[in-house]
């Protein structure tokens, strides 16, 4: 694995803080009704992305996930201003404002969405890996899913085929304890989701996903295995989300104390503690990072605010059209 150095810790701190503050800003503008529709935030789960990116080869590896998907493309290299603009529904967004919160996508940066159907992205992730194997391209696909998707049929059908064909894919379950308001324990006898891999004789295991070091180590092992042609791995990343499922969640299924318990092992705080302990940065340098993060978040907001909505016709230019379809009399010319 690439060594975890002072530079790694400083990057992790700045990146994770930016992702956290970017999402905090989204929550704020959502309440002001500048961003509409559903909004699912990633606060608390950042170590998963930080650790994964460290283990990936960002010149060729791919990523696909569900709808909690705003910061992953930023980590993969997409301009955060474009992500913010997409959430505002503006024409300068990653999909010209037509996708919105659940559908961030960037082929250029190998981020394949952004999927609203629980478990819908799982077979697609294996499909991306199948294509890479078929065309003999050296790339690994990280396929993320929530604990709620672990009981979907699509996961089980995909695991079976992926392991049978030794596909270069890593299945990463982000177990944040809840699927909307339903805890893992309410839906399944076994709460150790990683054990599902055993049923397919797929290498599998649990990961302390509040710590980016642990995530990077587990991902590196899985990615190396996939790259060598030895097939998929099934990881359960044990994490927690601080905010509700979406912005309209009253969170009656959990206590404030439970949230506070996980905040004690917050990934950003953990990384900052190492930085301070190992004297990787002075107080002044840390403040400078904080300032840079705040400035970039404000730049994203300004860019989104000042961008225009897409022209009305864009809507019709980006959908499938059958010239002789008899039922669409309202087409805009
Ligand atoms: C097939 C399908 N069934 C139900 C829903 C409604 N739904 C949206 S999110 C969600 C919970 C998913 O939870 P989880 O997979 O744990 O992801 P998390 O939100 O915790 O990241 C459900 C049931 C859906 N989008 N798709
Ligand atoms: Mg969940």
UniProtKB/TrEMBL annotation:
Described purpose of this protein according to its UniProt entry: The pyruvate dehydrogenase complex catalyzes the overall conversion of pyruvate to acetyl-CoA and CO(2).
Enzyme's top EC category: oxidoreductase
Catalytic activity: N(6)-[(R)-lipoyl]-L-lysyl-[protein] + pyruvate + H(+) = N(6)-[(R)-S(8)-acetyldihydrolipoyl]-L-lysyl-[protein] + CO2
Gene name tied to this protein: pdhA
PANTHER family the record matches: PYRUVATE DEHYDROGENASE E1 COMPONENT SUBUNIT ALPHA (PTHR11516:SF60), PYRUVATE DEHYDROGENASE E1 COMPONENT, ALPHA SUBUNIT BACTERIAL AND ORGANELLAR (PTHR11516)
Subunit structure: Heterodimer of an alpha and a beta chain.
Cofactor(s) of this protein: thiamine diphosphate
Residue ranges the record marks as coiled coil: 279-306
A single BP term in Gene Ontology: pyruvate decarboxylation to acetyl-CoA
GO function term, MF aspect, one: pyruvate dehydrogenase (acetyl-transferring) activity
Record field: transmembrane: none
The Dehydrogenase E1 component domain, residue ranges: 15-310
Its EC number(s): 1.2.4.1
Keyword Secreted recorded: no
Name of the protein in its database record: Pyruvate dehydrogenase E1 component subunit alpha
This protein's UniProt keywords: Coiled coil, Oxidoreductase, Pyruvate, Thiamine pyrophosphate
Pfam family, one: E1_dh
Cited InterPro entries: DH_E1, PDH_E1_Alpha_Subunit, Pyrv_DH_E1_asu_subgrp-y, THDP-binding
């Amino acid at each position: 694995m690439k060594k975890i150095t002072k530079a790694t810790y400083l990057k992790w701190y700045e990146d994770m803080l930016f992702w956290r503050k970017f999402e905090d800003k989204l929550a704020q503008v959502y309440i002001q009704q500048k961003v509409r529709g559903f909004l699912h935030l990633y606060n608390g789960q950042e170590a998963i992305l930080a650790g994964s990116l460290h283990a990936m080869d960002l010149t060729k590896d791919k990523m696909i996930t569900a709808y909690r998907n705003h910061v992953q493309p930023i980590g993969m290299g997409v301009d955060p201003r474009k992500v913010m603009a997409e959430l505002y529904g503006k024409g300068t967004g990653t999909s010209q404002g037509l996708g919105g919160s659940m559908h961030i996508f960037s082929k250029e940066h190998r981020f394949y969405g952004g999927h609203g159907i629980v478990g819908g992205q799982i077979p697609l992730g294996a499909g991306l890996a199948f294509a890479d194997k078929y065309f003999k391209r050296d790339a690994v696909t990280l396929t993320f899913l929530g604990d709620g998707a672990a009981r979907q049929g699509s996961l089980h059908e995909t695991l079976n085929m992926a392991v049978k064909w030794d596909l270069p894919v890593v299945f990463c379950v982000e177990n944040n304890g809840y699927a909307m308001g339903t805890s893992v324990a309410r839906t399944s006898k076994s709460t150790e989701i990683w054990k599902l891999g055993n049923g397919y004789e797929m290498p599998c295991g649990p990961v302390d996903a509040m710590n980016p070091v642990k995530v990077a180590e587990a991902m590196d092992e899985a990615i190396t295995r996939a790259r060598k042609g030895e097939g998929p791995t099934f990881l359960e990343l044990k994490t927690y989300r601080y905010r509700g499922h979406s912005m309209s969640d009253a969170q009656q299924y959990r206590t404030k104390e439970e949230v506070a318990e996980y905040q004690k092992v917050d990934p950003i705080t953990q990384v900052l503690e190492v930085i301070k302990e190992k004297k990787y940065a002075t107080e002044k340098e840390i403040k400078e990072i904080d300032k840079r993060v705040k400035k970039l978040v404000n730049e994203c907001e300004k860019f989104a605010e000042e961008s225009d909505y897409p022209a009305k016709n864009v809507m019709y230019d980006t959908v499938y059209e059958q010239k002789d379809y008899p039922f669409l009399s309202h087409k805009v010319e």
